Predict the structure.
Amino acid sequence: MRIFINLFIVIHLLLIVAWLFPVNTTLLSIKNIFQNYIIFLGLDQNYSMFAPEVRKTNRHLIALITFPDLSTVVWTYPRQERLGFIEAIQKERYRKFANDNIVEPSFKIYLPNFARYIAKNYVSIYSCTDVKPCRISLYLSETDTRLPGQSSFPVPTNIEGGSKEKQEPSRLTNIFTYELDANDLRDTY
Amino acid sequence: MNVLKKMISVFLKGWEQFWFTPVSTSCISVFRILLGMLLIQDALLLCPDLYVWFGKDGIVSPAIVNGWQTHIRLNILNLFPNNDVWLNIVFAIFVISAITLTIGFNTRLSAILAFVCLSSLHARNYLILNSGDVFMRMLCFWLIFSAAGMSLSIDRLRKRALAAPWAQRIIQINLSLLYAHAFVKKITGADWQNGTAVYFSSRMIEMQRFHIPFLFDQLWTCRLLSWAVLGIEFSLFTFIWVKPLRYYVLIAGLLMHLAIDWTMNIPQFEWIMMISYILFVEPDDMDKFINRVGSLFTKLVRKLHFRQATI
């Protein structure tokens, strides 16, 4: 039994080191050989929050819902900056999903489903029986954070809440547009 | 040849001592209770939006998640995909196992169920996970192999037992490697080298919680804080293994995580890190602490009982 435990310890420590620090060909080979095992059990780890660089923009996602008559409605998810203490904790996953992940190019495969979800979510909340959305456009709003002295607004302004810094102008970028069809809104009204 | 034999002998002796010399299970048991509470909290936080994140009509389609991933993940939700009833069952098992893990009832089985359910939820939608979730999953896995149910548990009422701490040691090493990885990733970044990292991270409005006046308002203080974070993370995988320095390093780590939790809204992340520090507390110190708490509690109960009897 002791032999098995020792083997278990050695193998798994080696796997953790190889996964986190594949710095040479040996460790990289170990990582590649065992990656199916590591990923299956969820032992893949990455602790690079705010590393190597910190994001220098404040950003959030909005969706423009367009109807056949070309009228539009803006949809957004729960915004952390507008929530109370408890609600901000509970809804933080929305920030993680929208601000950190779904806007990244590596996750663009999820955008069509996200657009369909927004449409269904809007339709079910507002009980749209006659007029249903036909297009969802996702926009990323970004505001740069600058070091003191680099701001577009060199004169500091007192803002309620203690900050003496004024916000930079925002950029709005269309990152995805999805044309809805009848099947997308099936199972709603 | 004799020198080599002696070196091997010393190594094997040290290995045996480090991994298998029985120690009090107080630390791993206290850790188990706190991890169980964090798992319950995680479930409570996920519950209101369960179908948004994991449902068949959720924000991320199961078909796309399964189709896009190049590797198979442990995910029992895939037994019945697109089935919210099955999701409810898995989630209920997760909640129940988190509770039984906390109270130490069928501890090993509870740890297995908690790990399997948590891994499944993570595999179903990994776009909502932060590093704290990842480490919590690791902790659940290593806890399966630990002696966490041998003290402060329903499984073993009253008597505190000794056991080989090898699973606890793995968690300690995993925690150290976590900080090593974080440090190495940070030190290569210009923001951390020039000390502006804390300045920029403190200006992420979406993550702000409570403001500390002065500390984040000056660039020079932000620089000092950035380098202090690097120093503390460096200590947490190096000097933490030096016994005379251990408690000072742990206190520095606690202060760092508490400060982050005060100023930034990253639910559970800091607390997952902090509870793991318990595993570095000396078993004797933890036993003394538990005995102290126990005797204070007994005195309080006696006082209340006496007051009630005299009324």
About this structure: Chain B touches chain A through 70 residues (CB under 8 Å). Residues 191 and 197 of chain B are 5 Å apart (CA to CA). Chain B has two domains: 21-164, 171-289. Residues 21-164 of chain B form one domain.
